[in-house]
Amino acid sequence: APIDRIRNFSIIAHIDHGKSTLADxxxxxxxxxxxxxxxxxxxxxMDIERERGITIKAQTVxxxxxxxxxxxxxxxxxxxxxxxxxAYEVSRSLAACEGALLVVDAAQxxxxxxxxxxxxxxxxxxxxxxxxxxxxxxxxxxxxxxAEIEDIIGLPADDAVLASAKTxxxxxxxxxxxxxxxxxxxxxxxxxLKAMLVDSWYDPYLGVVILVRVIDGALKKGQQVKFMQAGTxxxxxxxxxxxxxxxxxxxxxxxxxxxxxxxxKEVSQTAVGDTITDAKRPTAAxxxxxxxxxxxxxxxxxxxxxxxxxKLRESMYKxxxxxxxxxxxxxxxxxxxxxxxxxxxxxLHLEIIxxxxxxxxxxxxxxxxxxxxxxxxxxxGSMKELHNPADMPDPVHIDxxxxxxxxxxxxxxxxxxxxxxxxxxxxxxxxxxxxxxAGRAQLTYELPLNEVVFDFYDRLKSISRGYASFDYQxxxxxxxxxxxxxxxxxxxxxxxxxxxVHRSQAEARGRHMCERMKDLIPRHLFKIPIQAAxxxxxxxxxxxxxxxxxxxxxxxGGDISRKKKLLEKQKxxxxxxxxxxxxxxxxxxxxxxxxxG
Length: 597
Ligand code: GDP
Ligand code: MG
Prior knowledge:
It holds the Pfam family GTP_EFTU_D2. Residues 4-186 form the Tr-type G domain. This protein is an alpha+beta fold and 597 residues long. The protein contains 15 helices and 34 strands. Strands 11-10-16-7-8-15-12-13 form an eight-stranded antiparallel sheet, with helices on one face. A six-stranded mixed sheet has the order 2-3-1-4-5-6, sandwiched between helices. Strands 22, 23, 24, 25, 26 and 27 form a six-stranded antiparallel sheet that branches. α12 packs across α15. The longest helix is centred in the last third of the chain and has 18 residues, at 503-520. Residues 52-58 and 551-558 have low confidence and may be disordered. The structure holds guanosine-5'-diphosphate (GDP) and magnesium ion. Magnesium ion binds at residues 19-20, 44, 53, 55.
């Protein structure tokens, strides 16, 4: 298409405000799919995405639209991942567009996640078209939402489009606004090829499919291209686009978005944000803004049934085919057996992988407490990255420890503000800003990430009855008074329960863990101490009382079949017992301790 007839845009929306419904509506209106095909939401194509209402992988759709002025346009709708864990991927998708539709629920108003994304979009110099969706709802307050868009975001909302993605109201207006308000891309068809690798995924038939945005020059079948950051050379064997069905094209020119395949076997060879250029006639400099995907949250994943270890390994390899941002290496634990230490982009990413492993691969898994990456500066001047509390060096050799911090934006109705402030304060937060808009508070805090991976999000949601929204970005490492806390059962260290905590939190966390273990470990014929310790110093302690003889007698009495059953159960349990001194702990106890999160 001629470059002035191309419009590249994304849709920015808070979860559930109607992004997917609107995307489907636009596809339907421009003839991409029949009504029958529309019965399924097209862009959310994974079960977990649909259930959680989030988009994990970006997709893009090319639409043909004949505007009211009679001209034909090519509209590329870029769907962006909908969660903070994927902020970098979102930034690359946005960098591939010139504009965005800002979809805000007419009954819910502006939310924190909307803000974070809209600011990114503004940073990319996007032309933003506000769309107030769900105006069919009785609770819709479009005027109030317009005022919010102006007051909170600072965007003019006078010509916001009032729409209902559900009933179809305003869809034509949205299409016209895309054509007339969002500018066409710019690019030089004669310059050497310069294209951005926006996203990639594994397709069983095509191999790795790469979503690209061409900046200058052209991409053609048979062309030899170089991935500048990876330093690899590939031969392009297919060029095309999605409508959303696959369509093969001869070439992709400047300003266009489409896909290529190049017989690439693994997505790990394709880095989001890389610059693709012609191998023989390369562009002078790669595109700015490239970052390597780096896991920020780590945890141990162990099969509940030790026999599932190989299956777990295979399943992880399969998942990694499509998600290079997830890493794993083998780990052994005395308490949990063989498993893997895994790295993720964030907590949600962790949950998604865990859920896919259990659901798609039918694995029963146990995860250890999530940990962030600490920078350990040693007395000899060297620095180690710590991913696992078990690897913590002896504190006498440590000069200082730095931990990652985040900048968090929380958006919460007034009535819950007090409790949220307390939560942030308890988590070592530093308040940066507090503003009120339309009966809601917008709160910004600097927080240590390790406090956030420890059930912060769940607490936030329960305190606010689900009304608070939360968004964050990393702001680098800072020194902290951090210590390794170990849990001892009968004076023996339980490796799977060790964690890195701030000294000020150690006692409370230790006490909590001891109380929990006390309830989970069965009584023995003698007393069992459960302790939390930092180094050699005990900071919390519980004792499991000894079992009285008469209780056992009662327990093992009764009819013979019941007794047999009990014995069998015991035998089965024995297999999974872990010994701590003379104490036998069923593996279920650790699993339960960790499951309570
Ligand atoms: P997303 O999370 O932003 O992709 O939101 P979805 O498109 O999945 O929509 C979330 C929910 O809102 C779904 O149940 C939709 O059916 C519903 N929804 C979307 N648009 C409208 C609308 O215009 N009016 C009404 N009443 N419901 C809508
Ligand atoms: Mg969606």
